[in-house]
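Consortium newsletter contribution from the modelling node. Members have asked for a concrete example of what our holo predictions look like. Here is one, prepared for the zinc ion complex that several groups have been discussing at recent meetings.
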Amino acid sequence: MHDRTAPVALTLLLTLAAPVRAQHAEIDREVDRLTAHITDIRRQIHEHPELGNRETETAALVADHLRELGFDDIRTGVAHTGVVAVLRGGKPGPVVAVRADMDALPVTEETDLPFRSTVRSTYLGQEVGVMHACGHDVHTAVQLGVASILKSLQDELPGTVVFLFQPAEEGPPPDEEGGAALMLDEGAFANPRPEAVFGLHASAQLPVGQVAYTPGGALAAVDHFRVTIQGQQSHGAAPHLGVDPVVMAAQVVSTLQTIRSRNLSPLAPSVVTVGMIRGGTRFNIIPDAVSLEGTVRTYDPAVQDIVERRMREILDGVTRAGGGSFALEYDRITPVTINDLDLTSRSVPSLVAAVGADNVPVADPWMAGEDFSLFANEVPGFFYMLGTLAPGTTSGDHHSPTFRADDTAVPVGMRTMAYTLWDYLTAAAAAP
Ligand SMILES: [Zn+2]
Ligand SMILES: [Zn+2]
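And here is the predicted structure:
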């Protein structure tokens, strides 16, 4: 990894050495000044988590903080609870956007953190605990920190930064719209329009002090499919008088796995998972239908097309052979999150300057999905992982009750993102 990052870092340091180092020193001073306060905010958000499209207190905290800083261009209620704030620097330069997500998950927290959540709510008709089990509390706090830093350096800022505080990244509740798609629909990128977008995500696998990135496809495209396999009901003792959807479903589940193993290159990462299967009412009745539901994860739209096409062909072949029929609903939920290669090579030197080349590994793609991808489909995007695992502690995985993002990641997030935005604007403003 050092071979890939060091030469780029060197180039930037040689061309922009003196001014960049001076600006970085100013950012460092601001990070030191703000860390205790922003850490408090992080704890406050963690203790009061809110589900997607319900982030009213979090959004109010964000907007209040930005107003106190002196931001004068703040839009609230974007995509229900989102906040968009624009900071225009004192020097000419381009427009960039930076995004943090604010929503928590229906998970009951089981950590021993002094600021752990005891909040309960209802989700899909069930009473649930609510927890920042994906680290979005860290993202929101870090971005408030970055807003504070850049606001205090506003006179020298060469360009404009659009701060996006986004609701419902994990997906809006059923029958509601939300998240990045709705923010874009409601003009998050309209006025002013950014030429690049940046974001970060906590990583429970990565130690505090490190940031990791994946050039190109970084997080998977998320698809959701629902299948009904239609047969004909009959007595369990007289299968020849009906059409058995259970047998067809069993064949479909097995054969779907041949898409991965026989239709795609072994080097094309993908997952086909049937997560739910339902059918039948009694042991001696062959039911009339069986339903399957699952997810597909891919990194390449061409691979995504093959999976969907083969899924239809397999369903068609198996159900024809069995004498039944099928219906398939195939929804592409979020596209693959792509780190633009040019923007990545421009941004990595800033990460290296912030934490050192040894602490900027290249990461494998992550099979999770991110609706940051929708912003990054509009303009080039760069999305990196922020290590939140403190030495001597353990963390459950993302979305688990024992997920634990350490506070000490907050200043690392502030420093790396502030450097990244500042350096991009400086270089773009200086370019002919
Ligand atoms: Zn998540
Ligand atoms: Zn997340």
